[in-house]
Amino acid sequence: MNYNLPKVSYERISHLVTQQNESEAAFMKQFAEEECKYDNPLLVVNPYLINPLTAVLLFRTEKPVGVTITVRGVTSVANITKTFPPATEHVLPILGLYKECDNIVDIELSTGEKSSVIATTGGLPELTQEVENIITTPEYMEGMMMFVSAAGKSLPAGYDYNGDCRWAMAENFVFDMKRAANGNLLMGSYRYSRPPYHTTGLCEVTMVGKIVKEYRLPGNYHHDQFEMKDGNLLILTQDFHRETVEDMLVLVDRETGDILKTWDIQGLYPMDVGKSGSWSSHDWFHCNAVWYDKPTNSLTLSGRHQDIIINIDYETGELNWMLGDPEGWPEELVEKYFFTPVGDLNNFDWQYEQHSCLITPDGDVMCFDNGHWRSKKKENYRKNKDNFSRGVRYRINTDKMEIEQIWQFGKERGQHFYSPYICNVECYANDHYMVHSGGIGYVDGMASEKLLPAFLDPEDPSHKQQSVTVEVKNDVVMFEMHLPSQFYRAEKLSLYHDGDNMPLGKGKVLGYLDVTPEFDTVPETEETSQPPSEWYKIKIVEEEDRFTFSGRFEKGCLLMLCLENEQESHNYYISTTARPALAMCVGSFMEADDRQISLNVSKLGFSGIFAVKVIINEKKYHTGICITVD
Fold first, then answer.
1. Which residue from 147, 188, 331, 466 has the highest number of Cβ atoms inside 10 Å of its Cβ?
2. How far, in Å, CA of 434 to CA of 187, rounded?
3. Does pTM top 0.85 for this prediction?
């Protein structure tokens, strides 16, 4: 339902899971009603509405037969082929289509019959980026593709060896992208919730774009997740009822969405020590990665705003060790938990404001060393043009509490590989790595000295954002891809996998959003039946589990949202004072106009029909909108 009031815009939208359930039911109904054979199949492009380079192919055979599907590439080595097991009813995902093209899809039955069908695609979603440059070979990639998740004004996408986009999401699923054991992707929800980039939760998504589950969290989702052996999910979150953020993680039941266990980083040690240049009392730790290590039954966490990687016991949550520059840390912590460098100290560097920590199978620690500031002392901070970022691997001895740097890549490239934020590393095997520097920014050809490249102006020709992804094997660069935007992480994946590539059935929305904090004190105001001025551009978007109030307001004005009926009222204070953003890990939700303000209100905690009013300075205005909460 969409309509515009004279001054206030209102829209009611269904959850994407609901829309996808309806789309799947529609094409399955059509399939049930039509006679579809392998030489005259039903083909539905973009079946789940958000992945335009995919399709679903549906047909029946009298006897169980296997089916091999091939999407023809621009050359034969760019073909995407998948063989599906024998069946009589075939509902097959088609992956790896090209944009704006009559893609030829070949169908071959195990009995030898062959046919082809045309899958016609349109253009890419507006913010999908095209590869600037790629250096690799099809032999090295072996049919794999490089996927990236967005951090700037871009969208998740996947690119083949030739740099062609063969997979593209039209919704901004954010932060980390990991393949689950069942072959689906685990990605942050596209539903923005709280500034600067927290989203409602984590989504499990098929390669065709179907949301199998959204796991909503009361503290929302940020940065990273890890799938446990039993399928349950470690997810980074926080508690919005206190003054700090990004310092908690939870274990979520894969089937129910229930929170099974919580770890609180706050309280492990003092928050105001070991500060990086981006530290604040609000975002003191800034946890941006989680990794579970089975041999030690421990969790490794990356704290950007203390230049520290910590390891805690999975069961007790107690500290095991801390990896980072000991400068600025209390002596008692350094003596008990920090490592002493050994080996070639001339080529040893600590990591600073790191991302993407992981533990290798033999117990080494890897991360992307952003190098932001590259010192614990302000007087020694480096300018970005003189700095470097890198992937690094450390060997640690927890008995002797010693650390040795055994590999790095990126320092030698200087400012041209420098990302002060985001990024990741992957360890495929000893001496085979991926290093993704996704937050490079230039002004007039030099590394930007702005706090973060997310704030660069894409309309300014002197500003440039770039992402560079490199794979190194035996110290030889085997893959390098340049993209003209910021990308949070990169992952090399196949389009198809060994699990169920086309699970059918209704997607689910699990967990819950926390009750939105209310404000007890409502100022005395003059109430008017007139709606607010059109200048404010107020918009209300209602969903099944929340609604969003947004508009344009001058900094420092008094702004409150009021929900009222004859029995009760709910009042929400909306800050119009900008909080300094020392970490904008996903700038996708940034508004071009910094006066644009929004508030998401969960429907949890109250019910009824409420008139929506808004206080702007000394007046309370009627919007003419009513919200129904079941």
1. 188
2. 20
3. yes
